[in-house]
Amino acid sequence: MASGKSNMAATGEMRTVRGRSRTIFYWIVAIIALIGLADATFLTIAHLTGDDAVCGSAAGCSEVLGSAYATMRGIPTAAFGAVAYFIVFSMAVLGLFGYAGVKKFLIALVTAMFLASLYFLYLQAFVLHAFCPYCLLSAALSFFLAGLLVAVPAAR
Amino acid sequence: MTKSEALTRGVFAFSSIILRSFYFEPVEKGLKFAANAIESRSFMKRFLPFLIIAIVGLLTIGIATAVYKVKMQPAPAGATTGASPASGEMTKPPAAAAEEQKDSQGWHVRGPAKAPLLLEIYGDFQCPSCAVASKAIDQLQAEFKDKIKVVFHEFPLSMHQHAVRAAEAAEAAGLQGKFWEMHDALYDYQPVWSHTTNPGFLFDSYAGSMGLDLARFRADRQSSDIEGKVIEDGNAGLLRGVRNTPTIFINGQHAKGAITKDKLREAIEAALAKQKS
Fold this sequence. Notes:
The complex is a heterodimer of chains A (156) and B (277).
Chain A: H1 2-6, H2 10-49, H3 61-65, E1 71-72, E2 75-76, H4 77-96, H5 102-127, H6 133-151
Chain B: H1 2-21, H2 25-39, H3 41-72, H4 74-96, E1 108-110, E2 117-123, H5 128-143, E3 148-154, H6 163-175, H7 179-188, H8 190-193, H9 200-209, H10 214-221, H11 224-239, E4 247-250, E5 253-254, H12 261-276
Parallel strand pairs in B: 2-3
Antiparallel strand pairs in B: 1-3, 2-4, 4-5
């Protein structure tokens, strides 16, 4: 096996390295998306059941979850986040299995999530004057995804 | 890969021996085809990602609905167990001093009519510190036995989304003689109804558990009479200088900063001492 590898042409080696980094990239995206999915699902349930235990001791956190911005046309805002993270996860899995065309879609979706997170951060900081830790986690995750897409060449 | 290959081959070989012994060739052919399909990489590539996505999606939905159901189910059960020690405390003061629902001015009074000390509280049912103050007052009322009567005035703050509706629910319950029961329930379950989109359902459920006439309660809490009563109470408070909640008056005197149990006890003792001298 070792001899086979050493015989490999330089171009072939390059390709496997690129393939490996792409695999790692999609793995990270999938894991981040799973965490985001769990977080957003949790927030959705918390909102639907009206349980503000999730806030813990964070002051004003229930103001965020109970605010007018916590729903859009009656649907909890967090539910949109859960759907978005689920799609990101699906894309990452398809990317792992070598499906082409996933990247462009992923870039568009993560850009939208990045902008939405910016808007929600703005709402928390300047409109509601209160922060909820789980919402911040979701924002952090989408910022991380956006950063990953920009920074990792395998994504392009 | 080699292990799973060996396994599938083994299973295939085993089943084919059994099937051959029964001369069941069509099934045998089908099995061969399935084994080949599973072994080939294209099958994995085509279906495995979708399988993973479907499993994760179903798991998420399944866990979410399970948690949702669990959270919604014990809400009343958990609330009753959580409330049982609290309601034990709460029933004490009214039992000790025959509870009055309203006095001649139409105020909500709890405690003996001839009690020497009148404690008025301007409260907002969605304000957490009001809930704390209310508990403290209940305990002090039990502590001072027949010396305190408590009057509650509505003062819903606009910063609280459902405060007005909660005040209206309490007043509507008052029309059926259960103001204080609803008052206690609203404070006990404040964390529950405060953050729901439509607390009306919860108010109705509290009313139902108190044995109120539900149709009447629902109509009352949405009536303009009750709406007016709440606004009137709030305006009266504004005229007396109330700006936030809870604001407490002891014998008509604004007890500034007396929100905690110890501060309140001090204020009550001072007022009682003043009356004696």
